[in-house]
């Protein structure tokens, strides 16, 4: 039985599918859920110029992440699930590592996250946060796809 389930979230369909599975596991096992959202604050800093207000863009990322976490947590709480949230910040680092560190520090027993399931050249070019998490954590990981993989 899992009592502490970490669910990394964003605004994707795969993340929504992971929330559904996380909700199901938490409800069945009376587990606590921790929702995390990672923002990469360096994504604007590297190309900053006089036309961008980098601190404003970074604050917008934070606010958007906090809003997402609050909305998702509210939905889980409405189902009677105990929820914590945390906005994680990265500075051009590995997003998967940020998730793994949070899972370890929170003593997560399961990570439930979405994956696009890309393969081939798309995977090579885009990488995979989910794959990075799987390779770096000792915690069991449940990967959820929003739609069946294309063959």
From TrEMBL:
Q: Name one GO cellular component term.
A: cytoplasm
Q: What is its main location?
A: cytoplasm
List, alphabetically, the InterPro entries matched. Answer: Rossmann-like_a/b/a_fold, Universal_stress_UspA, UspA
Checking SUPFAM superfamilies in the record gives: Adenine nucleotide alpha hydrolases-like (SSF52402)
Name the domain of life this protein comes from.
Bacteria
Per UniProt, the keywords (alphabetical) are: Cytoplasm
Q: Which Gene3D superfamilies match?
A: HUPs
**Cellular localization per UniProt:** Cytoplasm
* Family affiliation: Belongs to the universal stress protein A family.
The record's PANTHER family line, in alphabetical order, gives:
STRESS RESPONSE PROTEIN NHAX, UNIVERSAL STRESS PROTEIN UP12
**What is the designated name of this protein?**
Universal stress protein
Q: Which organism is it from?
A: Iodobacter fluviatilis
